[in-house]
Design goal:
- By secondary structure, the protein is an all-alpha fold.
- The chain is built from five helices and no strands.
- The chain is globular.
Length: 97
């Protein structure tokens, strides 16, 4: 297994972060490194942004996403009704506010 596929390290980092929320950035860094990605984030299927963990490498982009209003016009949410059919009305209500 190569250096970019150490998912055990990701699991350990997530466990640490679940016990100590200050460790979520490090956990996202571990996920990005293990997968060979430029960065990592966890987006909730339910709940509100912008309180989501992101890796240090994409922290500035995440801040711009919120500060510049992209959070209110994110095209990914258009598919949420199909993904979570039991929550159609709550997602639609939240996105149209």
């Amino acid at each position: 297994m190569g250096a970019h596929r150490n998912l055990d390290a990701v699991g350990a980092a997530f466990t640490e972060a679940a016990l100590d929320p200050t460790r979520w950035t490090a956990a996202m860094d571990a996920a990005a490194e293990a997968t060979g990605s430029a960065g990592a984030t966890l987006l909730p299927l339910r709940g509100r942004l912008p309180e989501v963990p992101v890796s240090e490498s994409i922290g500035a982009a995440a801040e711009d996403y919120i500060r510049n209003g992209w959070i209110h016009r994110d095209e990914r949410f258009r598919g949420m009704d199909a993904l979570l059919p039991s929550s159609r009305s709550s997602i639609s209500r939240r996105l149209t506010k």
